[in-house]
Design a protein that fits this description.
By secondary structure, the chain is an alpha+beta fold. It has three domains: 2-150, Pleckstrin-homology domain (PH domain)/Phosphotyrosine-binding domain (PTB) (PH-domain like, Roll), CATH 2.30.29.30; 160-253, no CATH class; 256-429, no CATH class. The chain contains eleven helices and 21 strands. The protein has a seven-stranded antiparallel sheet, sandwiched between helices. Strands 15-14-13-18-17-16 form a six-stranded antiparallel sheet. Helix 1 (19-41) packs antiparallel against helix 2, helix 6 packs antiparallel against helix 7 (201-210) and helix 6 runs antiparallel to helix 8 (212-229). The two termini are 32 Å apart.
Amino acid sequence: MTTPSSPHGRTWERLHPVSPLIRGARSAAGLVVLVVVSQVSSQNRSGSRLDIDAAIIGVIVVLGLVQWLVTRWWFDGVTLHVETGLLRRDSRTIPVARIQSIDLVQPLLAKVFGVAELRIRVAGTGKDERLAYLHLERATRLRASLLATHHGLDPATPEPGEYPLAVVPGSRLAASIALTGSTVVLLAFLIAIVATAAVSPKAGLAVGTAGFVYLLGLVTGIWRRFNTQYGFTVASAPDGIRVRRGLVGSVAETIPVRQVQAVRTIEPIAWQPLDWCRLEVDLAGIMKRERGSGSPSVTKTLLPVGSTELAAAIRSIVVADRGVVPTPPPRRAMLKAPLSYHNLAAGHDDVVAVATTGRLRRVTAWVPLEKVQSVRRVQGPVQRALGVATVHLDVAGRRVDASFKDRDVTEADRLVDDLTVLCRAARFTGTPPRGAAGA
């Protein structure tokens, strides 16, 4: 929907007219349910109180309509301009060069009306810029124009094609969730409630009531994981790795290869006999202020569950892997880490460092040396007595590193010197991973 051109020749566009309805649907629906429940349960309810509840719902609708009326945007081929605000005008300019990724999000109600939300991540900002909502076709065209301009192409350039890599079957996703710790704890809790109720109904009711909130949290977490990762599709494209996912609502996102700081495969102990793993990447440049961590990174899933062979194929597109074979630490390190020693291993070449850790679940991290910001040698009192030390390769972000744990002191000292030189050289050469050209 467009508005007349301004005196400066700008043609502003408005969001889709159903935007206020979709944004306010959750709050309004909650209030409607409360009104209906309270009306049924209260026999002596006065009509004036009902009028107040109806007025509150009406205010929510009106505020949403006002927000829609005062919000407009336009794209001049170089910068995206967004204006909003009634009493205090907020004008934001988003240079296309600073855009890191653009996601297309469709909640359930947005699917019904054929609209979508654009979530635009900008380097160095604390939140996403959102255009909610645009007609699906318009949102797709605007996304393609922004990405084309970001890569130095004409804004009219259509979105490049993609090469499908994997589709996660719903049955495999459900099985993987069933084999996680949350599901096991939930089943154990339900069995305990049933067993207690069989002995004493009152005691069973008391246990169920006491653990209701915890049970609800477990069920919600399990459902959220299934809902958000259902229909998970991965594809490779010149602008990055494209991911589509979602059952009730859908998300289409592009993960820029150049922003990947580290790659991880996670293998829970129950998945290991099936040769399954989860593949994750850490992206730079996205501030997580809402969590108070100040971490300039965010974790994205590239594969919620799949074979280790498939994960390796996808990983090779994101980070160069020339077949580094990690080696274990000396046997005396078992005295310090008896529960995790069987998983400890690390290695490197002139491009990437690989490190494996974990007790019950095995976590393997691949860190491109060009992304490393510091190399640290750490030695605690137990390590000093055993003659071992740990070397950390730190990358931008929180808990994002590759750790050569409990290596021989002589090896650790050599690693610090060698990796410092290799990381400096990698930053200058910047060897791209296979298939990352143009990303």
